[in-house]
């Protein structure tokens, strides 16, 4: 039986990580002021505080739940159940992990339980490890000069970068839609990692702890996921090329 | 398990190729490369006309991923979520 009580990921031993930099294991955690204020407001029944939290995370919760459950409707239900569990568990939340880590760990537990109930048991480590993969290249090998060529392994045509304000690019509905589709098309375990790391902005250690991955494993999944999303966005990322004018 | 490119390419000492570099970008951004590979990565970046643009494309991709959450919730979802809150709040 899976424990129904929400737990804090901070309770679990932090996975060993040889990494330097921002992914470094945190020490005993002190909640920042903004988060303490948010938790206090929620406990006081502040509807606005709850709404802003929901706006920020609900979409990712649904997308992450979809990794384990059968369809979008089941994922939505699991995310809704998660908010109910969050509210019920709020008084017991001690701030040893970040509020959002706690919320997402509840989601993962709920999603796994739902999968068991629906007899859709999935082993996360096996899920999608090779499925839908194309040999595991970050970039199509045809983009490089082949072995034997004097420039083997170099780009066979230049990579360019779009010019202009990145904000305009990032906030366009078209790009947002493309990104969402690209995420949905990823194998499940790539999807889980990229949602936590890049959509939600978690550190490597936080993502490893909640998903039960090693640092190296997490990094490989994230790298493949990012590479595929970049490929989808490529038409928006490079400078308008001369081929386009010629054709 | 999936092969880890940082392990596959560790210990190489010759000039890094573009094709090798693209496999290491995430490890580079997470500062998870061993010092020698990091040095070769940066050496390549300094002399390659294309790879800096590639790394920048990955950064833009990450930024685009971080910008999608702004999408509005459907009204029916928002209403259901609010009902959970009001029910919880009323029962305390």
- Approximate helicity band of chain A: 40-55%
Gyration radius of chain A, in Å:
21 Å
> What percentage of the residues of chain A does DSSP assign to strands (E)?
under 5%
Radius of gyration of chain B: 22 Å
General shape of chain A: globular
Distance between the termini of chain A: 62 Å
Can you put this structure into words, describing what you see?
- Chain A is 53% helix and 0% strand.
- Chain A has helices at 33-43, 47-65, 72-89, 99-117, 166-170, 173-184, 188-199, 204-211, 215-237, 242-246.
- Chain B is elongated, with a radius of gyration of 22 Å.
- The mean pLDDT of chain B is 90.
- Classes of the chains: A mainly alpha (247), B mainly alpha (92).
- Chains A and B meet through helix 2, helix 3, helix 5, helix 6 and helix 7 of A and helix 1, helix 2, helix 3, helix 5 and helix 6 of B.
Summary, kept brief:
The complex is a heterodimer of chains A (247) and B (92). Chain A is mostly helical and 247 residues long. Chain A has helices spanning 33-43, 47-65, 72-89, 99-117, 166-170, 173-184, 188-199, 204-211, 215-237, 242-246.
Give descriptors for this structure:
heterodimer, A: 247 residues, mainly alpha, 10 helices, 0% strand, globular, disordered N terminus, B: 92 residues, 62% helix
SSE layout and pairing:
The complex is a heterodimer of chains A (247) and B (92).
Chain A (H helix, E strand, L loop, with lengths): L32 H11 L3 H19 L6 H18 L9 H19 L48 H5 L2 H12 L3 H12 L4 H8 L3 H23 L4 H5 L1
Helix pairs in contact in A: 2-3, 2-4, 3-4, 6-9, 7-9
Chain B lengths: L4 H4 L9 H4 L3 H5 L5 H13 L3 H15 L9 H16 L2
């Amino acid at each position: 039986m899976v424990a129904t009580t929400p737990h804090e990921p901070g309770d679990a031993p932090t996975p060993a990580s040889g990494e330097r930099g921002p992914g470094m294991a945190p020490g005993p955690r002190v909640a920042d002021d903004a988060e303490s204020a948010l938790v206090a407001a929620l406990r006081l029944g502040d509807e606005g505080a709850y709404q802003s939290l929901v706006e920020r995370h609900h979409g990712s919760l649904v997308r992450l739940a979809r990794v384990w459950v059968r369809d979008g409707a089941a994922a939505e239900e699991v995310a809704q159940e998660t908010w109910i569990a969050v509210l019920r568990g709020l008084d017991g939340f001690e701030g040893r992990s970040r509020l959002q880590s706690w919320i997402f760990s509840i989601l993962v537990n709920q999603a796994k339980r739902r999968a068991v109930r629906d007899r859709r048991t999935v082993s996360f480590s096996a899920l999608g490890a090779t499925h839908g993969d194309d040999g595991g290249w970050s970039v199509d090998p045809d983009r490089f000069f082949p072995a034997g060529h004097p420039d083997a392994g170099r780009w066979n045509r230049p990579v360019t970068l779009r010019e202009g304000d990145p904000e305009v690019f990032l906030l366009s509905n078209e790009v947002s839609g493309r990104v969402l589709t690209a995420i949905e098309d990823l194998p499940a375990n790539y999807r889980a990692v990229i949602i936590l790391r890049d959509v939600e902005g978690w550190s490597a250690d936080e993502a490893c702890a909640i998903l039960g991955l090693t640092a190296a494993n997490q990094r490989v999944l994230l790298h493949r996921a990012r590479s595929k999303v970049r490929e989808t966005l490529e038409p928006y990322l490079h400078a308008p090329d001369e081929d386009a004018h010629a054709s | 398990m999936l092969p880890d490119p940082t392990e596959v390419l560790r210990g190489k000492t010759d000039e890094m190729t573009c094709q090798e570099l693209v496999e290491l970008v995430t490890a580079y951004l997470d500062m998870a490369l061993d010092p020698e590979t990091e040095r070769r990565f940066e050496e390549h970046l300094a002399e390659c006309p294309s790879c800096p643009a590639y790394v920048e494309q990955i950064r833009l991709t990450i930024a685009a991923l971080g910008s999608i959450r702004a999408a509005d919730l459907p009204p029916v979802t928002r209403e259901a979520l609010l009902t959970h809150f009001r029910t919880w709040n009323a029962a305390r």
